[in-house]
Write a structure and sequence with these properties.
439 residues, mainly alpha, two-stranded antiparallel sheet, two-stranded antiparallel ribbon, membrane, transmembrane helix, transmembrane
């Protein structure tokens, strides 16, 4: 059996940490493909990766999440006699990873990623984030809490008197992992959240849409949306790293470009995570860095307004060509007069019809629940900021009363601030004339 050299010992510990997070040490090993990650270098020859980083990235590259296989297994005890009493089902609790082991493994993965020199590739960053997300820390904490409650209930004097402590209780207590009393589940959740934040905010990391989506998914699972507004802002404004002659330089970018707009699906996921955690500050921060950003508005203009604007521009030309052809098939007027009459009539018909349809589309309020547009708001403003209004509507419904007849009765400094914030956006929260029974 081959042995690794003595200097690769830190690499082995780092690989073991990555395997712990990916769940390899908890289940039967399976066949998988190993992928070696290389940093993306521009204009220079890539330097050889250190043994520690190669072993770490190979361990992190697994795409199998083995921790999902920890299900409860039931075994049946043999009958006490042939006459036969009913069989007793014993619930054998699965072994869950120790919180101290998870904390140590997360630290090793973070240190291994930070020790890498050069610009990490997108795949490398995604692999590190996925390694941190392999273990559902909240589920592990809830499982250990339930197990501790079961063990405490079985140790009660009543259980001893009633003879309820048998082989099942012994088996259940033997499966409960022993954790350090100084480590709380909340601390582990914070550690994983801080590790993901440190990876994404590393100066040499380029935040791509895939990296941003993975980070939002991880923080949503952990229930820690406090850093989402900052990372969403970094997605548009973070300087772009460039490597030349072995040195990394950073180039400022324009955060208002349309290509820097956050995708609507990612923005919705971040907003849902903030609402689920009942964090209004994080929800408003997500709103400001997504739907209210200039990059998002410019992207919407390019994607949704460019084609209609082109159609409006070319419609008069097409109508004039049609009017010219119609003038040739009549003999009542001269061609020039007939062309003018046909062109003006067709243009008025198309213009009036398009205007009525546009007003009907921009003033529809069936999708509005609590947040509506103020009277006199221009139609172009309503169309451009409709996603922002819908997000504020979702926030108001989430943090306010759920009963429709109690809309407008919310009190407190936080909700009053939300009402004023919505009013500054040319919107109204709970307009009286649009409430049920008032229109």
């Amino acid at each position: 059996m081959l042995r690794r050299p003595h200097q690769a010992a830190p690499a082995l510990r780092l690989g073991q940490a990555c395997e712990l997070l990916s769940g390899k040490s908890l289940t039967k090993p399976a066949k998988r493909s190993f992928v070696t990650l290389h940093s993306a270098r521009c204009g220079s020859k890539p330097s050889p990766a250190s043994p520690a980083w190669v072993i770490a990235t190979r361990s992190l590259a697994t795409s199998q999440s083995c921790l999902k296989a920890t299900h409860s297994r039931f075994t049946r005890s043999k009958p006490a006699s042939s006459e036969g009493s009913s069989r007793v089902e014993t619930d054998v609790l699965p072994r869950t990873p120790d919180l101290a082991e998870i904390a140590a493994a997360v630290d090793r993965v973070t240190k291994g990623f930070m020790a890498h020199t050069g610009i990490p590739s997108e795949h490398m960053t995604l692999t590190a984030l996925q390694a941190c997300a392999q273990t559902d820390v909240r589920q592990v904490a809830d499982s250990q809490e339930r197990q501790s409650k079961v063990a405490a209930a079985e140790d009660r004097p009543t259980s001893h008197l009633l003879g309820l402590e048998g082989d099942a209780s012994k088996a259940g207590r033997s499966a409960v992992p022993k954790t350090s009393p100084s480590i709380r589940p909340e601390d582990i959740v914070d550690k994983v959240s801080d590790a993901a934040f440190a990876i994404v905010t590393h100066p040499a990391v380029v935040i791509t849409p895939k990296v941003l989506k993975e980070y939002v998914r991880l923080q949503a699972r952990l229930g820690r949306p406090e850093t989402l507004p900052h990372v969403l802002g970094l997605y548009a404004s973070k300087p772009k790293p460039r490597e030349a002659a072995g040195a990394i330089t950073y180039v400022d970018v324009n955060p208002n470009k349309a290509e820097k707009a956050v995708d609507s699906a990612i923005a919705d996921a971040a907003l849902d995570a903030a609402i689920e955690a009942q964090d209004m500050d994080a929800a408003i921060g997500v709103l400001e860095n997504t739907y209210s950003a200039k990059a998002f508005l410019r992207s919407k203009l390019i994607k949704k307004a460019l084609l209609p604007a082109t159609a409006v521009t070319t419609t008069p030309i097409a109508l004039y060509v049609i009017a010219t052809e119609l003038a040739k098939i009549q003999s009542s007027w001269d061609p020039a007069t007939a062309t003018k009459i046909a062109f003006v009539g067709a243009l008025c018909y198309a213009g009036f019809t398009a205007t009525i349809g546009m007003v009907a589309a921009f003033t529809s309020n069936d999708q509005m629940k609590r947040v509506t547009w103020a009277i006199g708001t221009p139609l172009r403003h309503r169309w451009l900021y409709e996603e922002e209004r819908a997000a504020l509507d979702k926030i108001a419904c989430a943090f306010g009363f759920s009963e429709e007849y109690r809309f407008g009765e919310e009190e407190g400094e936080e909700f009053l601030w939300l009402r004023e914030y919505i009013l500054r956006k040319s919107m109204i929260l709970d307009a009286v004339d649009l409430m049920p029974g008032m229109n």
